[in-house]
């Protein structure tokens, strides 16, 4: 495990203070402890992560490493036992429209059409109708579902539903888009297309995205930076910069570069099991 | 005649071959609508047939089971002298009022109970406790509390339905997926706007389903309600007939209540389909 560390960027703990103050999103020394009558269970231990504006990062790790919990904490849906989460130097205390989220389960409001779903957050902001329609048109186009504008979620396939969920979150223009294994329930083919679409949207608009997954391929293809986590307790193991250029097509999955990244991350994840 | 032939032919098509027959008994295997309808009609015909056979042949005395014809005569007489209609209207009024009051209080209370643990701690155990109490035992008390007029009967229907309804609505509220509420929060709703804009619309179909079930119970408690110093209503006619062992009148009353109940249930079913075309379960 030790010998593979040096050749890639490992986030330095020294000098963290100065560089971190500039980061848009900061998770500082996060602990999550669950206490039951008999035992205390440490799910996450001392995780610190800094994420820059307009970056696309993935958090990858085996199940039970707390990656999803971290994301829920960022959204304000869960809280750390210790440590704090800052977005633009503001402490996260509750959920808000500035942090959009896409879930693994389908969370479109079934009684609303595609259009109404995308408008939901905008209506809450009391945005003028013209501006609202403009935004809806724009996102319907970028998720290629203009034809389904007036359809109800029950008429859509799983991939379509997730596309609308992404559009709904992005239409709100959040500071950060949190994605919790959003393509986990999709078949391989749909999944690849969704990855491509998401990457294209990112290329165009540069929203800050934090994407949680356990799929190595997905992480390497999507992210500029991958946070690899270990389990028992959940800790940050390593940060990998995926230097593969900004414009990515699905073809890059067959390149040597991609395969090497995949191998490397696989090793990082697998090494832990070998330890046990 | 030709129409019924067409029905039979299409049913035959449904059942082409023994292999297909076997498939109809796979778990949850769908069957075609006509087959379903025919089976239902056959069941009713069979039961009525048995009834007629048992009574006409004299195997069962009329005191235990009246002849179908005398039950119908009883109903027709009731229609002729208008007493049936009057009694039905009185009963429907009592049920509607009791049910509406129960719903008006039970739905909001149930939603609060399913949303906030502290409200649940107050209301949940209390309702669980009261709902096991025998409603008929309350009748004398209700007379003391609410007198012997209409209010008393409405109160009985209310007691019979309210506590169950509140608990079921609370369950409906809990069944809305956590992620749906979380998604709503991340789109900018706060506590109350989440309840009004997401939780309540999401549980809409379930609320209606709960009402559909509980109004069935309301019909049951009607008879209990009309025990209270009553001199009108369908429940009362049954009770009066019981006193004189008027079996055909008892059956007439029971049949009428059954039919009215069936009509309410169908109305609810249609309303649910019309109100929630988006619901995943109401497909096809």
Summary?
The complex is a heterodimer of chains A (276) and B (284). Chain A is α/β, with parallel strands linked by helices. Helices cover 36% and strands 23% of the residues of chain A.
CATH class bucket of the largest domain in chain A? Alpha Beta
CATH topology of the largest domain in chain B: MetI-like fold
| Overall geometry of chain A | globular
Q: In percent terms, what proportion of residues of chain B is strand?
A: under 5%
Query: Gyration radius of chain B, to the nearest Å?
Result: 24 Å
List segments of chain B where confidence is low: pLDDT < 50 over at least 5 consecutive residues. none
pLDDT averaged over residues of chain B: 88
Structural class of chain B: mainly alpha
Oligomer state of the chains in this structure: heterodimer
Q: Could you describe the largest sheet of chain B, including whether it forms a barrel?
A: none
CATH homologous superfamily placement of the largest domain in chain A:
P-loop containing nucleotide triphosphate hydrolases
Distance between the termini of chain A: 12 Å
Task: Walk me through the structure.
- The complex is a heterodimer of chains A (about 280) and B (about 280).
- By secondary structure, chain A is α/β, with parallel strands linked by helices.
- Chain A has 2 domains: about 5-95 and about 175-275, P-loop containing nucleotide triphosphate hydrolases (Rossmann fold); about 100-175, no CATH class.
- Chain A has 8 helices and 10 strands.
- Chain A has helices at about 15-20, 65-75, 115-125, 130-140, 160-170, 190-205, 215-220, 255-275; strands at about 25-35, 40-50, 55-60, 80-85, 90, 100, 175-180, 210-215, 225-230, 235-240.
- The longest helix of chain A has 20 residues, at about 255-275.
- By secondary structure, chain B is mainly α.
- Chain B folds into 2 domains: about 1-55; about 70-284, MetI-like (MetI-like fold, Orthogonal Bundle), CATH 1.10.3720.10.
- The chains are: A alpha/beta (about 280), B mainly alpha (about 280).
- The interface of A and B includes residues 110 and 178 of A.
């Amino acid at each position: 495990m030790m010998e593979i560390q040096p050749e890639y960027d490992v986030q330095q703990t020294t000098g963290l203070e100065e560089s971190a103050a500039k980061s848009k999103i900061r998770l500082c020394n996060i602990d999550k402890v669950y206490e039951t009558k008999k035992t205390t269970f440490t799910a996450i231990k001392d995780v610190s992560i800094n994420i820059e504006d307009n970056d696309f990062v993935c958090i990858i790790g085996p199940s039970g490493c707390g990656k999803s919990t971290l994301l829920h904490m960022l959204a304000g849906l869960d809280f750390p036992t210790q440590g704090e989460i800052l977005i633009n130097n503001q402490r996260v205390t509750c959920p808000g429209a500035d942090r959009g989220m896409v879930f693994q389960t389908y969370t479109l409001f079934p009684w609303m059409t595609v259009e109404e779903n995308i408008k939901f957050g905008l209506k809450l902001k009391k945005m003028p109708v013209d501006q609202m329609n403009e935004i809806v048109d724009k996102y319907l186009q970028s998720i290629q579902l203009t034809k389904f504008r007036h359809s109800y979620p029950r008429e859509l396939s799983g991939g379509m539903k997730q596309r609308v969920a992404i559009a709904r979150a992005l239409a709100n223009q959040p500071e950060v888009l949190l994605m919790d294994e959003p393509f986990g329930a999709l078949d391989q083919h749909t999944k690849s297309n969704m990855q491509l679409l998401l990457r294209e949207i990112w290329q165009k608009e540069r929203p800050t995205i934090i994407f949680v997954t356990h799929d190595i391929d997905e992480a390497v293809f999507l992210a500029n930076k991958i946070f690899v986590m270990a389990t028992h307790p959940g800790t940050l193991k390593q940060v990998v910069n995926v230097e593969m250029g900004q414009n990515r097509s699905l073809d890059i999955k067959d390149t040597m570069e991609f395969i090497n990244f995949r191998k490397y991350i696989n090793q990082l994840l697998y090494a832990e099991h070998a330890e046990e | 005649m030709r129409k019924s032939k067409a029905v039979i032919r299409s049913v035959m098509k449904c059942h082409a071959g023994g292999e297909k027959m076997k498939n109809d008994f796979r778990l949850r295997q769908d069957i075609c609508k006509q087959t379903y309808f025919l089976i239902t009609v056959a069941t009713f015909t069979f039961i009525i047939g048995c009834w007629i056979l048992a009574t006409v042949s004299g195997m069962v005395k009329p005191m235990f089971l009246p002849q179908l014809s005398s039950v119908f005569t009883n109903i027709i007489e009731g229609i002729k002298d208008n007493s049936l209609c009057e009694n039905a209207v009185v009963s429907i009024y009592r049920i509607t009022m009791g049910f509406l009051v129960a719903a008006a209080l039970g739905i909001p209370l149930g939603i609060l109970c399913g949303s906030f643990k502290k409200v649940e701690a107050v209301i949940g155990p209390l309702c669980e406790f009261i709902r096991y109490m025998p409603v008929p035992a309350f009748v004398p008390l209700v007379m003391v509390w609410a007198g012997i007029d209409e209010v008393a009967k409405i109160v009985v229907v209310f007691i019979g339905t309210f506590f169950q309804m509140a608990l079921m609505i609370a369950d409906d509220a809990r069944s809305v997926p956590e992620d749906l509420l979380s998604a709503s929060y991340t789109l900018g709703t706060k506590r109350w706007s989440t309840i009004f804009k997401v939780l309540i619309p999401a549980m809409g179909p379930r609320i209606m389903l709960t009402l559909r079930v509980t109004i069935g119970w309301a019909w049951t408690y009607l008879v209990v309600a009309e025990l209270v110093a009553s001199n009108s209503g369908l429940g009362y006619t049954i009770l009066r007939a019981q006193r004189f062992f008027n079996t055909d009148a008892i059956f007439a009353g029971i049949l009428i209540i059954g039919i009215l109940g069936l009509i309410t249930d169908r109305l609810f079913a249609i309303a649910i389909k019309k109100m929630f075309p988006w619901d995943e379960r109401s497909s096809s």
